[in-house]
Amino acid sequence: MGxxxxxxxxxxRTRLFFGIIYSDPESLDRAVNWIRENCGIAHETPVIPFxxxxxxxxxxxxxxxRLWIATKRIILENELVEWKLKSIEKERELxxxxxxxxxxxxxxxxxxxxxxxxxxxxxxRIYMGKGIFAEITLLFKKGGYHPLPWTYPDYASEFFIKFAxxxxxxxxxxxx
Length: 176
Fold this sequence. Notes:
The protein has 6 helices and 9 strands. Strands 1, 2, 3, 4, 5, 6, 7, 8 and 9 form a 9-stranded antiparallel β-sheet that branches. The protein has a single domain, classed as 2-Layer Sandwich (Alpha-Beta Plaits). By secondary structure, it is of the alpha+beta class.
């Protein structure tokens, strides 16, 4: 059976990050302040237009904007479930007349992979509990992160891969 060590498996740590899509700058400011107060900010991208899909247009309006924020918080991968639930709560708090103005998607950046969590089930996602599913969206191999067939186009972009690679290199020996 090999040299199974449950201590290593149960200690898989990842850097918490947030993918943010927004239409309202004030809601963005409030969301970023919430992230800063709860997690600290290690690195963030510039804001770019979000024009990969019109999926959010009806609910959030148009134009939409996108950025990613890596936090200072290193967590166990299974803690992503709780951060997704907290993010949903924050989105609802910032909503106007029941419509979101900011979309907060937590994930984890670790040395071997980038993981996203979602409420949407699909064939490549694994149920983590409390209505939350996880997917590996990028794998690290041959010196870099690589998208998978289901990776969202913005996460497969050179822009995001550079962000994830930079975050992976942050001086912190607590992620695996």
